Amino acid sequence: MTDMPQSPDTPIAVKDPSRLKLALDSDFIYTFKRSPVAVVSFVVVVIMVLAAIFAPLIAPYNPFDPGSLNLMNGFSKPMEPNQFTGDIFWLGTDDQGRDVFSTILYGMRISLFVGAAAVLFAMVLGITLGLIAGYVGGWTETIIMRTADVQLTFPAILVAMLIFGVAKGITPVEYRDQMAIWVLIIAIGLSDWVQFARVVRGATLVEKNKEYVQAARLIGRTSPAIMLRHILPNVLSPVLVIATISLALAIIAEATLSFLGVGAPPTQPSLGTLIRIGQGFLFSGEWWILLFPAVTLLTLALSVNLLGDWLRDALNPRLR
């Protein structure tokens, strides 16, 4: 049976490409695949994040379970049998016999959680204040932006230390160790909201005079609805770039505070706490206790920072 010939007027069915295919064929993914630095940084970040999330499954030991520790394994060198027990540890052990590899995996969980939560808190606070300052204007804008200018005159780490000290001081003694992580998140977040607010305020000043905002006012939209549903989606691109770069800075800030002894408690050590502990044994020959957590922190922060730099270039149409 022969096929019936189609008339010229017969419409030809065209398959719509899937959203996944459209996303994979976008300029963003094309630019990403053409950047070896971005690809390597992304792979490293994904591996480290997954390793931190699944630390209880990957780590050969639970380093913070006192019942599983053996002091005879203390100061074991990397990949060498312990002289007393004969146990071999990939990255050695610390003074308490804790496996350094396992402590790094668990420490990354704290560092990543604090960094991500602090950036999220700073982003929400900065976007909210930036939208209000740019859209409302007047004395509201003046108060918000002058407060931001005053905060910029102080180093962020000093602001975080001040906020952490005040918040910890008003926290009951019996809850200080339990609340230390959350206090640390709030301290870093409050020290980092300014750059989000300044960028969003500048973008809002441009967007609020465009026709679509004026049309929204004419149909009776309220100011909060205009800011959230119309202006906010159009100012998110630079915010995402700042958030990526701020994540690396937040991780370093957390490590700095923990290294100074005002961050994560010893019961929940982060990479900064591990570095502080290892620093005390550096000159006695146990170099691995400091080296491996420090290299992990450097790799994590550098990878996130490089990924943020690429994201900034990829989302900037002037650099294409």
Structural features, described:
The chain is mainly α and 320 residues long. It has a single domain (33-54, 106-319), classed as MetI-like (MetI-like fold), CATH 1.10.3720.10. Helices cover 65% and strands 0% of the residues. It has helices at residues 19-24, 27-33, 36-53, 55-58, 100-136, 138-152, 156-170, 176-190, 194-207, 211-218, 223-231, 236-259, 271-279, 288-314. The chain is globular, with a radius of gyration of 26 Å. The N and C termini lie far apart (55 Å). The chain crosses the membrane at residues 37-59, 110-136, 148-167, 179-200, 231-253, 287-311.
Helical residue percent band: 55-70%
Briefly note the CATH topology name.
Answer: MetI-like fold
Nearest-angstrom radius of gyration? Answer: 26 Å
CATH superfamily: MetI-like
How many strand units? 0
**What fraction of the residues are assigned to beta strands by DSSP?**
under 5%
How would you characterize the largest beta sheet? none
Number of helices: 14
Transmembrane segments: 37-59, 110-136, 148-167, 179-200, 231-253, 287-311
Membrane topology: Multi-pass membrane protein
Protein name: ABC transporter permease
Domain ABC transmembrane type-1: 108-308
Explain the layout of strands and helices.
Layout lengths: L18 H6 L2 H7 L2 H18 L1 H4 L41 H37 L1 H15 L3 H15 L5 H15 L3 H14 L3 H8 L4 H9 L4 H24 L11 H9 L8 H27 L6
